[in-house]
């Protein structure tokens, strides 16, 4: 019996099987509201985005998805995240906004990507 869940990614329907880490959050530039009478009175609603950062191992045959070209082309992509345990999915459309690579002696070569897209929840 499994104790912990994983999150699996797919971009444009293509599973990212070489993925090793995923960070995701709903975020926005939501300002605090301060008043003289109440001190902190709450927040002012602002646009929210789904932010995702993921790291993938690069197999010898090459990268499984052309993150760099999608960013260079400003091409909208669909990102789907699915929890392995509950099966809940989060589907969002947006853009690749960063593509760092990392390599070193005695280390696995990796490519990471950052994504910003429409707000959506795991359902």
Description:
The protein has 123 residues and is mainly beta. It has one domain (7-117): Elongation Factor Tu (Ef-tu), domain 3, CATH 2.40.30. The chain has 1 helix and 10 strands. The strands form 2 sheets. Strands 1, 2, 3, 6, 7, 8, 9 and 10 form an 8-stranded antiparallel sheet that branches. It has a two-stranded antiparallel ribbon with strand order 4-5. The longest helix has 6 residues, at 67-72. The radius of gyration is 18 Å and the shape is elongated. The chain starts with 6 loop residues before the first strand and ends in a 6-residue tail after the last strand.
Topology record:
Layout: E1 7-11, E2 14-15, E3 19-28, E4 32-35, E5 39-43, E6 48-57, H1 67-72, E7 77-83, E8 89-98, E9 101-102, E10 110-117
Antiparallel strand pairs: 1-2, 1-7, 3-6, 4-5, 6-10, 7-8, 8-10, 9-10
Strand residue percentage: over 45%
Alpha-carbon distance between the two ends: 23 Å
Q: Give a quick account of the main beta sheet: strands, pairing sense, barrel closure.
A: 8 strands, antiparallel
The structural domain count equals 1
The CATH top-level class label: Mainly Beta
Anisotropy-based shape: elongated
The assigned CATH architecture is Beta Barrel
Secondary structure: number of strands: 10
